[in-house]
Write a structure and sequence with these properties.
Elements lengths: L2 H15 L2 E2 H8 L3 H13 L3 E4 L2 E4 L8 H4 L4 H14 L5 E4 L3 H9 L7 E4 L2 H7 L6 E4 L4 E2 L4 E2 L2 H8 L3 E6 L3 E3 L3 E4 L2 H12 L1 E7 L11 E4 L6 E5 L4 H8 L4 E5 L3 H11 L2
Parallel strand pairs: 4-5, 4-9, 5-6, 9-12, 12-14, 14-15
Antiparallel strand pairs: 1-3, 2-3, 7-8, 10-11, 11-13
């Protein structure tokens, strides 16, 4: 099937279903997920669809997806990222964590025995850490945005400006070499920027399904971060392009045994 015909068929399918995944389309058309992503990029450039977390929706539809929906997407990739991030944490670290379902997985795997402190505006992250009394949590106060469950406003941003932490874990709605890091939420984008600026080590944590997704607001470049933690499903050519920007790329293997062994070695 030639690209133009496939793209027209994809568009018709998206308009019918209202939301589809890259994996679903890849299986349906018998082509690679990278090919499907290119098709979705073309359709987005034409103003016909909006790319989302691992898929696409019709143009004009809201992309700020509820947490309970996003948390089930690409769970195995997010788990791999969470386990890897836990190995980067040092005793006594103070850590900024922004809002996102990937951050929930990072929180689930943070060790309790290192005397660390987490500063966050993400209610789902707080809910995870409530069950980890060994971790001190500072919740950034401000008006609650119900979707996607985070606090916003000047009280949040001013508090971030007054702090300086060892490390920040920041995620994004989408990333690419061409368009940098993007997010669907403008107010949260400012929080991400400030958290990175107030951190000694700035770590971007993002799963491969978000590659080449472009959300509404561009909030940073790869050069604004020290590290990218990404799973091993990202294309090697893309990894080389990202490394060329000067950022350290850390690959999280999706084989549980290897990650568990690394975590056990570093946090006995």
């Amino acid at each position: 099937m030639i690209a133009e015909v496939r793209q027209k068929t994809i568009l018709d399918y998206i308009l019918t279903k209202e939301e589809v995944s890259v994996q679903e389309l890849s299986t349906m058309f018998g082509v690679s997920e990278m090919t499907i992503r290119r098709d979705l990029v073309k359709l987005e450039q034409l103003g016909l669809v909006r790319r989302t977390y691992g898929g696409a929706i019709p143009a004009g539809q809201n992309t700020d997806v509820p947490v309970d929906v996003r948390s089930s997407e690409n769970q195995h990739l997010k788990t791999a990222l969470g386990k890897l991030c836990a190995t980067l944490v040092a005793p006594g670290d103070t850590i900024f964590m922004d809002a996102g379902t990937t951050m929930m997985e990072v929180a689930r795997h943070l060790p309790e025995d290192l005397g660390i402190t987490v500063v966050t505006n993400a209610i789902p992250v707080v809910n995870v850490l409530v069950n980890k009394p060994g971790i001190e949590v500072l919740v950034l106060g401000g008006p609650l945005q119900h979707t996607p469950q985070l606090t916003i406003g000047s009280a949040v941003t001013e508090t971030i400006k007054s702090l300086h932490v060892n490390r920040s874990f920041i995620t994004a709605t989408g990333f690419s070499v061409q368009h940098g890091l993007t997010d669907a939420n403008i107010q949260q984008s400012e929080v991400k920027r400030l958290m990175a600026q107030s951190s000694k080590i700035r770590t971007l944590v993002i799963d491969s399904s978000k590659y080449d997704v472009r959300a509404f607001n561009r909030f940073a470049e790869f050069t604004d971060f020290d590290q990218l933690v990404v799973d091993d499903h990202l294309d090697s050519e893309v990894i080389s392009q990202i490394k060329a920007t000067g950022i350290e790329v850390i690959i999280a293997p999706t084989t549980d045994t290897l990650l568990d062994r690394l975590h056990e070695t570093l946090h006995k």
